[in-house]
Amino acid sequence: MTERSGVAQPSPATHATSAHEAALSCYTSALLAYLTEEDPSAPDRVARSTRLALQPSPTSEPLVFRHHAAGLDRLPDGTALRPAGAEPLAEALAGLAEEVAMYGRALFAADAARLPWAPPGQEPAPHFLVATARGNGRWYLHDHFTGLFPNGQEQRSFSGWVTDASMAALFTTDDHYSPVQRRRTAEVFGRTLATPPKGTRHWFTRVNADSASRLPDEGTWCTDPEHIAGHLLEHLRTAGTNPGEPTLLEDLWAASRHHQYKYRHSLDAPGRSRPQEHEEALRQALTRWSGLPRTLRFAINSARRGRPRDSLLDTAVHDLARAENLARSVLLQEDKEHPWPATEPSMTASSGRQPPIRTVRHS
User: Fold this and answer.
1) Residue 207 has what pLDDT?
2) Which end of the chain, N or C, is less packed with Cβ atoms under 10 Å?
């Protein structure tokens, strides 16, 4: 195996990424890969948990989004994932290595702008990766994210060895991330987490789920699609007059990918038969979510050129809300008839039992 700039040629990931999973955001694609190693029901859990929620705010302040209902932090052995942090590189790498030694893998936040396999010119942003091995001055990393950026560049998934020097470059502190980016990390599991102090490197450790601390919810969270549509339109109608890229476009792009995964996963579920009108409702929601990012970007760019497209925004957002409401009612009815796996895994070991140490080897 040859290396270029401290990065080995890609190798197959321990968790094969399906076409559906490749449509997820970098956070959720990495989380799904991490969970699936121990919980075969994880793909169902991720699909079931997908739900957009937001906190209303004045148009001068960014909206706060949640992309999942609670439960994706839990593992079958009775542990839960929680953020950890350290500023010194050696301390952070030691914490990461400890997780790999104990569980065979570790989830951590790298800087998207410093990934050697990513297209050039990316802005700094937290990007979730999974480490599965450490040895001989190298780390074996998996990036399960695949995506096409607005500039036409494409990032593909990656699995391979990186040198200690490359690891030091991409495993950065979070002091150059925006408050919106740090808040996204805090909401990654569908509940607000207490994140490490600013200026630290972040990874996830596993703690006893019964004793895992969580922050109480503050403010009002809106989950009704029609109410969400109203709040989104307030912000989207002014987005074309604000400098820079509106942060809500990034969150709605992620929501689009998550909901595409959700509906494709449901439509392709083996052994599931449904009435034609139910099938059409799910496919309509899938179509609306798939087309949303391009429509919003077109409307906002048009507004920046002095040609507002308020009617286009209204139609796209309200049509999506109606389709989402109908699809939710279908899934709710099917859930009563054929229950999905719970959003939290069934216990395969007592919470007081120490998980086995796993050794993962890569050639």
Assistant:
1) 93
2) C
